[in-house]
Design a protein that fits this description.
With 52 residues, this protein is mainly beta. The protein is built from no helices and 2 strands.
Length: 52
């Protein structure tokens, strides 16, 4: 019987926003919940999230 595999790691959640309506892209107009994760250490030049 199939199931959802267990996660061995954890993901840091810094913000959950929604439900709201998707405003761009191919899913425009669809109900959406955005989950912002944290803990990224890449520090990309274009990233607008200082607390990632």
């Amino acid at each position: 019987m199939g199931g959802i595999p267990s996660m061995k790691g954890r993901i840091r959640i810094s913000e959950i926003f929604g439900p709201t309506v998707q405003g761009e892209g191919p899913l425009i107009g669809r109900p959406t919940v955005f989950v912002r994760t944290g803990g990224c250490d890449y520090r990309c030049r274009w990233c607008d999230t200082l607390y990632a």
